[in-house]
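Take a look at the protein record below and flag anything odd:
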Amino acid sequence: MTGFQRVSPMLQVQHIERTIEFYRDILGFEVTAVWPEDKPTWCSLERGGVRFMFYTEEQRGPAPPPKVSGTIYIDVDDAEALCNELANRVDLLWGPEVYHYGMLEFAIRDVNGFTISFGSPAKSGVEPEPT
């Protein structure tokens, strides 16, 4: 059976420029590609092993308004440090808190309304929230 390498969500957005600015300037992603360069309708951004691609209606044609019915979950080295780094730059939807399964997690909403949750194993000695 062929092995999978990684997942790269490709999400429709209304404003590519605002999306690029948020992921680059707030979350620290690197812009790895835009197309076309003069007025992008598609882009790719990466940080570590995480890659997002975004496109506008002009790229793929008309579609229903963009939405994701779930949460985009990103494993990180240190969720607490990342939460502290982002604390004054974005609104937290929840967390940070340690859950009964031993993960420290928090979530934000990006400029498109997508919910992104970040998590890392809780440091030893940190108790989970009561369930």
Summary: The chain has two domains: 7-59, 67-122. Strands lie at 10-12, 30-35, 42-47, 50-55, 72-75, 92-98, 103-109, 115-121.
